[in-house]
C-alpha cells in the first residue's frame, strides 16, 4: 500500500473497528482490482477516506479508463509513487478541489449508505442549451453545476485528460 503498510482506518473517529465490522458499498460492489489500485495509490489518508466510499464515481472513472484500454486495469501498476498512482491521486483530488461545484453542494464527504435518504442530484445546468456530457456520471458525483457550455467543456477536459493520461500510462510498452 502507498501508506507504508499502516492501516489508516484506525485514524478515524470511530477507529479501525468500524471499517472491520462494516463494509461500505464500495467494498461489496467494486472489483477488487479497483480497490487494490486505490489502496496502493493514495498518498494521503484523508483523500483516501473521501474517495473510497464514492462507489458510483469510482465505477464511472475506472470503467472509462478500462474502455480506453480495452481491458481491465492491473492493480500491480498502481504502486506508491508510480505515474499510474499519480494520475489516480489527481482524480481523487477532484473531491476537494473541484471548481465546478453547484451552488449549495455539500462538502467533499459522501453519504455512502444506500438507504435513499440523501440522493445526490444530477448535474445542475443554468439552461437547456448546456448539453449532456460523456462524463455525466462523474460530473454528477462531483456535485457539478454549469452556467455555460464553456464551463462544462472545461470540466470535461479536466476529467478526460486524467482518464486519458492514466490509460496512456497503463498501455503496454
Task: Write a brief structural summary.
With 173 residues, this protein is mainly α. 50% of the residues lie in helices and 2% in strands.
Structural class by SSE content? mainly alpha
What's the tally of helices?
9
- Order of strands across the main sheet: 1-2
* Biggest sheet architecture: 2 strands, parallel
> What share of the residues does DSSP label as strand, in percent?
under 5%
> Helix share of residues?
40-55%
Overview of the structural elements:
The chain is mainly alpha-helical and 173 residues long. The chain has one domain. 50% of the residues lie in helices and 2% in strands. It is built from 9 helices and 2 strands. The protein has a two-stranded parallel ribbon. The longest helix is centred in the C-terminal third of the chain and has 22 residues. The radius of gyration is 16 Å and the shape is globular. The two termini are 24 Å apart. The model has no long low-confidence stretch (mean pLDDT 86).
SSE layout and pairings?
Elements: H1 16-21, H2 25-29, H3 32-41, H4 45-52, H5 55-69, H6 83-92, H7 94-97, E1 124-125, H8 136-141, E2 145-146, H9 149-170
Parallel strand pairs: 1-2
Keywords:
mainly alpha, 9 helices, 2 strands, 50% helix
